[in-house]
Structures are given as C-alpha cells and as structure tokens.
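[recover] target loaded
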C-alpha cells in the first residue's frame, strides 16, 4: 500500500471509488497511566515502534489513543513539546508504513490532579505495596488510608505509589470543562483541540480526530448539589469542540463518541441528541463501542474468557446503532470491540459482526494492539518478546481478513 494522505482518501471517495479503510486496530501505549507526574516514556507509558506497526501486517488504520493530560500545559497554554514530539514520532512511523491514524484523546472526559500524599509506604521484594503498619495495601485510594488526610468528595480517585520520591499519592479526577480541572471551563477542550489540529493537520498519517473516549455518567455534582448530567455536558462540549476543529480543518473526519461508554446497543436511547451537532462539511463520524461478553453487558471485562457467545450476538448488538445511522443519514464507526484469544465462539461472532458492518459501510477498530500489555491481558492482541520481536496473538484472526477491504463512504445504504 502506497502512502495515502487522509485528505486524498476523503476527497476521492465516491459511490464509484472505494478507498476508505474498513477495519483496523487500536494501537495503544501513549495514553497509559496519565495520572503519573513526570511520567517517562518506556516506564509509565510506551513508545510505539516500527516493529509494532509492522507486526500489525496489512492493517490500514489505527485508532491512536493519546491523553489530554500530557498534551496540555494548562488551559490556554501551548502544547507540551515533549509529548508532541513523542506523538509525532509515532505518526511518522505510521505514515512511513503507508498507514493512517485517528488521533484520539483517551481520557473519559476526566483529568487527574494530585490532592494528597502520605509517606511511610514501600514496595516489598515481590513488588507488593506495604503500609507503615506492615500490612499489604490492596487499594491505595481506599477511604481508610486517606480519611485523616483528605476529605473525599463526589469524584473518582486513583491512588499511586511513586517510587521516584517514595510517596503514596491520591489523585482526584475532575470533569473536563468544570472547576478544578486542568481544562476548567467550556473553552478548555475546544482550545486544546484547536492546538492539536493546528499542529498535526498537515501530517500524512492523520485520518481524523477522536474528540474523547467514552464519556460516562459518574458521581460528580454541580455547585448546587445536583448531579452533573454528563450526556448534556458532553453534547455541549462536543458541539463546541467540533465547531472549533472545523475552524482549523475541514478535510479530516471528526469522530464523536457516544454516551455511557459509547454503547452501540443503547445508542438510540442514550446518544440520539448527538446527531444534531452541526456538520456543514460532512466530516462527523459517530463512534460506538461494542463488547460481546456477558450477553452484551460485560463491557469487555470477559470475566469468563471461555464464555460461549451466540453467533449472531455482535449483529443484534450493533444493529440499533447501524439503524440509527441509516435513518439519520449519519456516518458511523465501531471504535472498540474485542475478544479473548482462543475463544472460538467469540471469534465467529466477531467475524459475523464485521461482515454485517461491512455490508452497512461501518468501519471498525479492534481493541487492542501495541506495547505494554501483560501476556495474559484478556483483550491484548500482541506481546513484546523483546525490543525487536512482537508476538501477534490468535485474537487477530477475526479482523485480519477485513484489512484489505475498502468502502466508498461511511453512511449505511438505504
């Protein structure tokens, strides 16, 4: 496959010309552990090498998770040059291989900031966290640890033992666009995306922009005590951010994730309002996610790796999303799906789902390929043997036959 710019792909796509990629992979590594301060690539998150991209074979399209936490130096401030360089290095490797990428923020509409620290903690010889009393610590964010230090609010929390200074740290996640977050008001995410787009819009690997991974309803409250309505907040934020991107770039696709972890099965009832976001250039693509475990309610946890999946499960789960796209005449994309290596029933259900999506002009990317995944990760599709060797796992089997297929558009036929 020769080097194709995303602009060229989009500009030439027509009913007669099939140039748009159908199936690809999530290529993860750059977004890991976004709460770690002074994080180092290779330690807290991973570089994606030429070997990883080559190991993906004929895969034409990658969804590339990144993080606003590392891109941003603060609302209204310049992009972090070190992280920009790391992302650009990966995009250069993708382009050199003749492939394309959706540059995506994988932050769930929340960013962490440190609110408390404790000393006296350590790792034992087995790498387990041990408290000052000598007891093992299973949850470093547990209320019992922090009750005498920090009063938690209606937020999500992450505890982390930082070996750089031997401190146990508590991080509080604040919703993007709300007080206390690094991006603290309605202008925060649009401004960040304007900077990212201006920096990367001419890069030959860019296929599109993924606004935000999986916004979902959490415990957060408004100042008056009412629940923060994430669906309404995301609609406003996505609308403003898309308009800001269009002010910088009208050539590439803008991928907008649905509500409540982007559920394909529940799309019409949870994400219908997103279809009203203005799309004057025909570049919006709506992004759903779909995992087959636990009769479609497991969210990709696959607590039973050998769970027997009915062959048509993926079809009936994605049908509500596909029919919504068809009726609303919208472009769509299945940004995440995946199954455990060795589960033959899930492999067959995934193959049938992908064939159904192909019939309806819906592209997809499977989760997850790339560095840093444990060998036994339930959805991991690759494993680093050493710096030069990447093992591709058996759960590539369902998607791989679709890599060479192309589409003329991403709107389902009538």
């Amino acid at each position: 496959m020769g080097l194709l710019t995303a602009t060229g792909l989009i500009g030439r796509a027509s009913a007669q010309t099939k140039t748009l990629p159908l199936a690809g992979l999530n290529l993860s590594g750059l977004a890991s552990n976004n709460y770690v301060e002074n994080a180092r690539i290779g330690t807290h998150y991973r570089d994606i090498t030429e070997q990883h991209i080559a190991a993906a074979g004929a895969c034409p399209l990658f969804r590339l998770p990144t993080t606003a936490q590392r891109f941003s130096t603060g609302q209204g401030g310049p992009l972090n040059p070190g992280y920009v360089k790391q992302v650009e290095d990966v995009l250069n490797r993708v382009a050199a291989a003749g492939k394309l990428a959706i540059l995506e923020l994988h932050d769930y509409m929340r960013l962490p900031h440190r609110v408390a620290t404790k000393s006296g903690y350590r790792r034992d010889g087995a790498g387990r966290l041990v408290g000052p009393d000598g007891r093992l610590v299973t949850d470093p964010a547990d209320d019992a640890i922090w009750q005498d230090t920090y009063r938690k609010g209606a937020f999500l929390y992450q505890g982390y033992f930082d070996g750089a200074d031997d401190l146990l740290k508590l991080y509080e996640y604040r919703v993007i666009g709300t007080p206390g977050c690094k991006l603290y008001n309605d202008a925060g995410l649009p401004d960040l995306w304007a900077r990212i787009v201006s920096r990367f819009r001419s890069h030959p690997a860019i296929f599109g922009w993924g606004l935000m991974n999986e916004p979902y309803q959490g415990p957060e409250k408004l100042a008056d005590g009412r629940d923060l309505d994430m669906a309404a907040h995301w609609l406003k934020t996505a609308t403003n951010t898309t308009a800001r991107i269009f002010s910088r770039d009208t050539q590439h696709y803008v991928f907008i994730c649905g509500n409540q972890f982007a559920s394909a099965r529940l799309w019409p009832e949870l994400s219908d309002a997103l279809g009203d976001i203005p799309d004057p250039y025909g570049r919006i693509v709506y992004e759903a996610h779909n995992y087959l475990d636990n009769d479609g309610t497991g969210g990709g946890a696959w607590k039973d790796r050998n769970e027997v999946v009915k062959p048509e499960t993926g079809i009936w789960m994605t049908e509500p999303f596909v029919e919504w796209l068809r009726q609303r005449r919208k472009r769509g994309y299945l940004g995440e799906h995946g199954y455990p290596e060795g589960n033959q029933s899930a492999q067959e259900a995934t193959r049938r789902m992908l064939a159904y999506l192909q019939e309806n002009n819906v592209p997809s990317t499977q989760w997850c390929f790339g560095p840093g995944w444990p060998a036994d990760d339930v959805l991991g599709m690759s494993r680093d043997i050493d710096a030069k060797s990447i093992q591709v796992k058996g759960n590539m089997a369902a998607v791989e036959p679709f890599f060479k297929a192309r589409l003329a558009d991403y709107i389902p036929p009538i």
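[recover] notes: Residues 114-171 form one domain.
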